[in-house]
Structures are given as structure tokens and as C-alpha cells.
Amino acid sequence: MSIKGFIKRTVPFFLTFAIGLFVASFFVTVSAPSFQFNRGWKKHRQYHRTMEFENQRLREENFRLKRELVEKENQNFTLSSDGYEVPPPPASAPRAVPYRR
Q1: Cβ neighbours of residue 52 closer than 8 Å, sequence gap 6 or more
Q2: Cα separation of 66 and 60, whole Å?
Q3: 73 neighbors 86 (Cβ within 8 angstroms)
Q4: Mean pLDDT (10-residue bins), the chain, 101 residues
Q5: Angle of CA points 87, 92, 98, to nearest 5°
Q6: Which of 13, 57, 65, 96 has the smallest C-beta neighbourhood within 10 Å, fewest atoms?
Q7: So what's the pLDDT on residue 70?
Q8: Whether the Cβ atoms of residue 76 and residue 87 lie closer than 8 Å to each other
């Protein structure tokens, strides 16, 4: 391919590309983004510490609730010579007499 053919193909491409960037710059920024990695780490560490503290608090509360449940279950049973006995069931309501004509 000759130099003339190469120029005929590349110049219109670059001109079209430059015009496209110019028009796009009105709607979006064409410059490279600025990455600031150090700014977010402080917030991330603080969030991580807060989550660890909350998880620890929830573990302690879960343990406390389990312990209370076991204590309440133990209070519902009475200890006899042959082991644990279930307390007697509550008295049932009297049965209704069916209506007959």
C-alpha cells in the first residue's frame, strides 16, 4: 500500500475521533479519573471496628438469652428420685353439650 493510501485512510479516522472526543466532552469529562485510595481506608477501618464490636455484643446477648432459656426450662421441671418429671398439664375446659331438638 502506498503512503497516499495510508494517509487517505488514517487522517479521516483521526479527525473523526477528535471531533467525537470534542462533542463527548460537553456531556462527560474526558480526562482520566483521579483515584484516591487512602481516603476511604479510614472509613473502612472504622466500619470494620464497629461491625466487630456489634458482633461481639450480639454474641454476648445470644449467650445470655440461651442461658436464660436453659434456666427457665430447668424451673419448669421438678427433680424426683427417678429423674426429671414433667409438671401436670393444665385442667381442660368442660365439654359443651350438643344441642338437640
Answers
A1: none
A2: 10
A3: no
A4: 86 93 84 70 85 96 93 68 64 72 65
A5: 165
A6: 96
A7: 87
A8: yes
pLDDT of residue 97: 73
Q: Mapping DSSP to helix (H, G, I), strand (E, B) and coil, where does residue 96 land? A: coil
Per-residue cell: 47: 466500619
DSSP string, 25-87: TTTS--SPPPP-HHHHHHHHHHHHHHHHHHHHHHHHHHHHHHHHHHHHHHHHSEEETTEEEPP
Give the pLDDT confidence score for residue 54 in this predicted structure: 96
Contact 77, 85 (CB under 8 A): yes
Return the C-alpha cell found at 38.
Answer: 487512602
pTM above 0.70, yes or no: no
Q: Is the dihedral of CA 9, 11, 16, 18 positive or negative?
A: positive
pLDDT of the residue at 24: 87
For residue 35, what is its C-alpha cell?
Answer: 483515584
